[in-house]
Amino acid sequence: MNQDKKCNVVYSTDPNFENNYNDINDSDTIETYNQNIRIWIDRRGGGKILTVIKGFKGPAADLELLGKELKKRCAVGGTVKDKMIQIQGDQRDKILRILTEKGIKAKKAGG
Q1: Separation of alpha carbons 5 and 50, rounded Å
Q2: 21-38: b or e for each residue (b if 16 or more CB lie within 10 Å)?
Q3: Structure confidence at residue 97 as a pLDDT band (50, 70, 90)
Q4: What is the pLDDT of residues 36-51, one digit of tens each?
Q5: Do residues 94 and 74 lie in contact, with contact meaning Cβ atoms separated by under 8 Å?
Q6: 3-state SS of the chain?
Q7: How big is the CA angle at 5 (ends 79 and 52), to the nearest 5 degrees?
Q8: What is the band of 58 on the pLDDT scale with cuts at 50, 70, 90?
Q9: Considering the entire predicted model, what is its pTM?
Q10: Is residue 109 predicted with pLDDT exceeding 60?
């Protein structure tokens, strides 16, 4: 449970007050339809390779969740910047397989 999603009411003088914390939808669902994701490889200076995922349509929170899941399942570091996910190393095949398992349409692109 995320701390920022909790209702922080300690006491209320309203006799009709109801704590609606249980009504918050805590599911980690990402809209899989209408996604046209591209997986790029980016070669940086010093021989470093970066896998970049572009084209995600949806809220920034879903993009963050997807980035977190990809980093965890690939066991690498990365970040979410400028509406794209950056994963360390050449993880294109692994990421393509993970996205396909989730029902998200994705393709390899670029070099």
Answers
A1: 33
A2: eeeeeeeeebeeeebebe
A3: very high
A4: 899 999 998 888 999 9
A5: yes
A6: CCHHHCCCCCCCCCCCCCCCHHHCCCCCCCCCCCCCEEEEEEECHHHCEEEEEECCCCCHHHHHHHHHHHHHHHCCCEEEECCEEEEECCCHHHHHHHHHHCCCCEEECCC
A7: 15
A8: confident
A9: 0.68
A10: yes
Residue 22 main-chain phi, psi, to 5 deg: -70, -15
Report d(CA 7, CA 87) in Å as an integer.
34
Which two three-digit tokens encode residue 88? Answer: 């360390």
Q: Are 38 and 53 in contact (CB under 8 A)?
A: yes
Task: Please give the domain boundaries of the chain with CATH numbers for all domains.
Answer: 33-111 (3.30.780.10)
Residue (of 80, 38, 35) closest to 58 by Cα position = 35
Contact in structure between 30 and 65 (CB atoms under 8 Å): yes
Report residue 109 as tokens.
């692109």
